[in-house]
Automatic annotation (TrEMBL):
InterPro entries: DMSO2_SphG, Luciferase-like_dom, Luciferase-like_sf, SsuD_RutA_monooxygenase
Pfam families xrefs: Bac_luciferase (PF00296)
GO BP field: alkanesulfonate catabolic process
Listed name of the protein: Alkanesulfonate monooxygenase
Molecular function terms from GO: alkanesulfonate monooxygenase activity
All residue ranges annotated as the Luciferase-like domain in the record: 23-327
Swiss-Prot/TrEMBL keywords: Flavoprotein, FMN, Monooxygenase, Oxidoreductase
SUPFAM superfamilies with a match to the protein in the record: Bacterial luciferase-like (SSF51679)
NCBIfam families: LLM_DMSO2_sfnG
Origin species: Marmoricola endophyticus
Record's keyword annotation contains Flavoprotein: yes
Keyword Oxidoreductase appears in the UniProt entry: yes
Length: 365
């Protein structure tokens, strides 16, 4: 019997919302708004929140709150919500990050997690005077980062010798509250990213995509995990932008309005940056490498997941992905506060009913 699907949401700690469009977005990147949003999310059934990491203005995101500080603030404002902090290995030392998260884990009663982001925005690294590695090298560095962090969190004295990080007899006290350690998420569509997920990560984040595409990614990573002696140890999180309305016609009209009012200059700038990053992989299989203009209006291909329609239609679509092996659904919204609440009150209960019906059918079979 499978576990219930977990629901997560993108924290709008970066200005501009989750779509690169001039359409009205009743969403705010400030703390007060996000505090209320987090409290609403845990009340209506969301398990996770994911803070975004962006260090400088780009592509419609003029203002950004730093992810680790913002995550801690949300943890201290909630009681059950787990907050996933996005971090760049190139801008953190693994021991410093391990210490920061361990402290936050104690302050929050064991509710931290990290999302290791290998990086797509070259301008941030060059502006900060940091080297910009080629695609597969960025993932190799991220894999070392995860291995080093896990070593620090789980060993009494950590020693790690890699090409990017070296640690000798480092002792972290106290360890995180969570056993064996806070969950480690990681994204990326390329073969390098999938191989890294199979060997090291706890949960593999995927951009939005059709059931056929997502099913293929899950199968590949599951096989890679099995080859690494980790069969069944990797979870799968899927990005989706939810447009849930009382009628399918209304939901599709909103989608059309978002795309019709897209900020063409910002979308094209973002697209030029990320598609170059995706095609720079050794096999040309990276994130966004086949994304269209319409896909890029939502940063992580969220429209492709197809969570558009009535609560009943969206719940059925979600179950399609769960049957493929998706364990966590990461959601974005146009008007976060009101739409996240509507989703939690109208869609999540339907998903739970469908899960219960399938579980009962399995038992009776």
């Amino acid at each position: 019997m499978t576990s219930p699907l977990s629901f997560a949401y993108w924290v709008p700690n970066v200005s501009g919302g989750l779509v690169v469009s001039k359409i009205e977005q009743r969403t705010d990147w400030g703390y007060d708004y996000n505090k209320r949003l987090a409290q609403t999310a845990e009340r209506v059934g969301f398990e996770y929140a994911l803070t975004q990491v962006r260090y400088m203005a780009s592509y419609g995101a003029e203002n950004q709150h730093e992810s680790t500080a913002f995550s801690l603030a949300l943890l201290l404002a909630t009681e059950r919500l787990k907050v996933i902090t996005a971090i760049h290995p190139g801008l953190w030392h693994p021991a410093v990050l391990a210490k920061w998260i361990a402290t936050a884990d104690h302050l929050s009663g064991g509710r931290t997690a990290i999302n290791v982001v290998s990086g797509w925005f070259k301008g941030e690294f060059t502006a900060l005077g940091e080297p910009w590695l080629e695609h597969d090298e960025r993932y190799r560095r991220s894999e070392e980062f995860i291995a080093a962090v896990r070593e620090i969190w789980t060993q009494e004295s950590a020693t790690y010798a890699g090409d990017f990080y070296r640690i000798k007899d480092f002792s972290l006290k106290p360890k995180p509250l969570q056993d064996p350690h806070p969950t480690i998420f990681q994204g990326g569509n390329s073969h390098a990213a999938q191989e890294m997920a199979g060997r090291e990560s706890d949960v593999y984040f995927m951009n939005g995509g059709s059931p056929e595409k997502i099913g293929g990614q899950i199968d590949r990573v599951a096989d890679l995990a099995a080859d690494a002696g980790r069969a069944g140890e990797v979870g799968f999180a899927l990005n989706g932008f939810a447009l849930v309305r009382d009628t399918e016609e209304e939901a599709r009209r909103v989608l059309a309005d978002i795309i019709d009012q897209a900020d063409h200059e910002a979308v094209e700038g973002f697209g030029a940056s990320v598609t170059q990053a995706g095609r720079s992989t050794a096999d040309g299989s990276g994130m966004w490498q086949d994304s269209t203009f319409e896909d890029l209006v939502q940063y992580n291909d969220g429209f492709r997941t197809g969570l558009i329609g009535t609560p009943e239609q969206v719940a059925e679509r979600i179950m399609t992905y769960k049957r493929l092996g998706v364990t966590t659904l990461l959601l974005g919204f146009l008007h976060f506060q009101e739409e996240l609440e509507y989703f939690g009150e109208r869609v999540i209960p339907l998903v739970r009913e469908l899960e219960a019906a399938e579980a009962a059918a399995e038992v009776s079979a």
